[in-house]
Write a structure and sequence with these properties.
heterodimer; A: about 180 residues; alpha/beta; Pyruvate-ferredoxin Oxidoreductase, domain 3; six-stranded mixed beta sheet; 6 helices; 6 strands; about 35% helix; about 25% strand; B: about 350 residues; Rossmann fold; five-stranded mixed beta sheet; 15 helices
């Protein structure tokens, strides 16, 4: 098993931390993992993306030109990364702020209204966990139990009381992805 | 080895490995993309556990001269920085080499010249392997290609530095520094006691207590006749290092018709390029120099008898390619492929470069 993933959106949407939790979940599941951020001076409002690879075998390049899955959170990222999904691969996107929908017919396109859902749940900070839940519903590469372990590793102890809320968000994502 | 597998950035691995290998002191100044080295040290607070000093100096010039001072007393000391900061350190590095002091410098390269960018680059190859500072000196240069190697090379670099009384450098890049991977950290090794330091480093300025002739640590020698002898001694040492310390990795080389030569993050990207090329039936292999100096000249010369052409793949305008060409000595064509200023190539670009430049 090998899954090459790009997560892309605005800085502040939790792109990097979502990737980090996914990477830790892979670690908990005994996978090889790499997490490579496109780091830059951008912070909130700028663009942010991270490449996460989970594999049963040793990973060669942490930097890729095509992906099994793209998780897309804004129009700029959709424009940039829709064409980089491998044929037969998966594109997951939140339609919030998307003006031009994806058009490819040779990939599996899934829509997830994560922004609406997190506002409805009154848990704006769980936005990225709703997306991660949606992703794992479509591509069940790590078990939920290991994601929760990964969350525990990533969050500082003082935030561990937020884990149930994140778990609820993961499950919400699994429910609402189309 | 403690078998616990962790996930961390290359920069964090450097910091943890330094504490665990019994490092006595770290002196540094923050700069992207290596700031996590000192940040991690400050967070772990090793001075409480091992007594290791961690100090943020007022500049890179101060850092390297603090390293000089610590090394002069036989202590295991290090600094880390990124390209512009390492440029500031060059005078101190030349002095370390001239005074034959063991020390570790870590350079997590970013795009240059000047202040350049903060994104990954490998354009300090010349600076690292051909001098950088003045005078006929060499640095033992290790190029990690994974977070695990970031951890492993700290102890190795210190061992080599003390073995040869010569500064060593870990030449990493923004990719290896910033990416997270699995890593098993080395076991804790206690810092050496004063007695152990005196035994291992009889040359060090440890306080002679009237028991021996005074040790003088200096790179200055006013008599050219003596300075020439000093230089000849350095050159003999460098030759020994060249004979004994060359390290490299061969990947998919056995049946290769075309050979990539790449170090650090480029080697990782090239490995994927090899997999992709082989899926198309192109027999592509990769030779990864682990020591950039001493350079794996002999093994590259041997491959010149086996392959049709070589491509030196570097995040610069063509630096290591000169050493590859010297090794190949005209036997087969040697081309270069690079991206500049903080742009990182993708695996498909390298496959295309093989097709257009070598075939």
């Amino acid at each position: 098993m090998k899954e090459e993933i790009i997560i892309a959106g605005f800085g502040g949407q939790g792109v990097l931390s979502m990737g980090k939790i996914l990477a830790y979940s892979g670690l908990m599941q005994g996978k090889e993992v790499t997490w490579m951020p496109a780091y830059g001076p951008e912070q909130r409002g700028g663009t942010a993306n991270v490449t996460v690879i989970l594999s049963d075998e040793k990973i060669s390049s942490p930097i890729l030109n095509s992906y099994d899955t793209a998780i897309i959170l804004n129009q700029q990222s959709l424009d940039k990364f829709e064409k980089t999904v491998k044929p037969g691969g998966t594109l997951i996107y939140d339609p919030y702020g998307i003006t031009t929908e994806p058009t490819r017919t040779d990939i599996n396109i899934h829509k997830i209204n994560a922004m609406d859902a997190c506002i409805e749940m009154n848990a704006a900070k769980s936005f990225n966990m709703i997306l991660l839940g949606g992703f794992l519903k479509i591509r069940p590469i790590v078990e939920l139990e290991n994601v929760l372990k990964g969350l525990k590793k990533t969050l500082p102890e003082r935030h561990h009381h937020l884990i149930p809320m994140n778990e609820a968000a993961l499950k919400k994502g699994m429910e609402i992805i189309k | 080895m403690s078998e616990e597998v962790r996930l961390m950035k290359g920069n964090e691995a450097i910091a943890h490995a330094a504490i665990r290998c019994g490092c006595d002191g770290y002196f540094g100044y923050p700069i992207t993309p290596q700031s996590e080295v000192m940040e991690t040290l400050m967070e772990v607070e090793p001075w409480k556990e091992t007594g290791m000093v961690v100090l943020q100096a007022e500049s890179e010039v101060s850092s390297i001269n603090m390293v000089y001072g610590g090394a002069a007393t036989g202590k295991k000391v290090m600094t880390s920085s990124s390209s512009p900061g390492v440029s500031l350190m060059q005078e101190g590095i030349s002095y370390l080499a001239g005074a034959e002091l063991p020390a570790l410098i870590v350079n997590v390269m970013r795009g240059g010249p000047g202040l350049g960018t903060i994104q990954p680059s490998q354009s300090d190859y010349f600076q690292t392997t051909k001098g950088g500072g003045h005078g006929d000196y060499r640095l033992i240069a290790l190029a990690p290609a994974s977070v695990q190697e970031m951890a492993d090379f700290v102890g190795l670099a210190f061992d080599l530095a003390f073995k040869y009384r010569n500064p060593a450098i870990i030449l990493a890049d923004g990719v290896i520094g910033q990416m997270m991977e699995k890593v098993v950290l080395p076991d804790y090794k206690p810092r050496r006691t004063d007695e152990e330091v005196e035994k291992q480093c009889p040359w060090a300025a440890t306080g002679r207590k009237m028991s021996r002739k005074n040790n003088i640590i200096t790179s200055l020698e006013l008599k050219p006749e003596v300075m020439e002898q000093n230089n000849l001694r350095f050159q003999a040492k460098y030759k020994t290092i060249e004979e004994n310390e060359v390290r490299y990795e061969e990947i998919l080389c056995d049946d290769a018709e075309y050979l990539l030569v790449a170090f650090g993050c480029s080697a990782r990207i090239c490995q994927k390029a090899c997999e992709m090329a082989r899926a198309e039936g192109i027999k592509l292999g990769l030779l990864r120099p682990i020591t950039l100096w001493p350079f794996p000249t002999k093994v590259i010369a041997q491959y010149a008898n086996k392959v049709k052409a070589m491509l030196s793949v570097e995040l610069n305008a063509g630096q290591m390619v000169e050493d590859v060409r010297l090794a190949v000595n005209g036997k087969v064509p040697v081309e270069h492929y690079g991206r500049l200023g903080g742009i990182v190539f993708t695996p498909d670009e390298i496959v295309n470069a093989v097709k257009t430049k070598l075939m």
